[in-house]
Amino acid sequence: MRRPACPRSGRSYRRSDVNQEPNGLKNKDFISGANKEVESLLHYGFGKGGIGMARTEISAGGVVYRCEGDRLMVQLITDRYGKISLPKGKMEPGETVEQTALREIEEETGIRGEIVAPVDIIKYKYIHPVHGEVDKEVHYYLVEAKSGILRPQVEEISGVSWYDPKEAWSRQEQGGYDNNDVIVRKALARLGIQV
Length: 195
Known about the structure:
By secondary structure, the chain is of the alpha+beta class.
């Protein structure tokens, strides 16, 4: 792996409707007249499901990076189970996935950032003790740190640190969740780093 230089700060990811739903409608307009199941899915990240239907849960987060002089640093968290991971969390009412990603990053790590690009979406299923099978969808973004003080949200995670890209990749491979490998690899590739 070559030693990375910091990417030039250029135009960040801009979704013209970052605070809107498809067709330029505001969230409340998008669901007006919709039943409560659709409202729940769009605003709370859950579909109520039905016979033979799994609930849907939508979360978002990101791979956060910053530059220290000409050194590129990548943020990783240690979750409450001791695994290396990325900041992420569930969508709240009225949020877009981008807003969810930025809010969760700030809540969990203390860092305010700006989305540079989408990275990928991870989809999987899990069993909820009350609701049964849940289809989980996690949207990840490449996020440039802009401000804030690094501090873990101790109710959610046990630690957060900055690493050079090589160390971040090594920690992800050795102690991270397998489904995050592709996310970290793609984010590093967007930063010009091949692993």
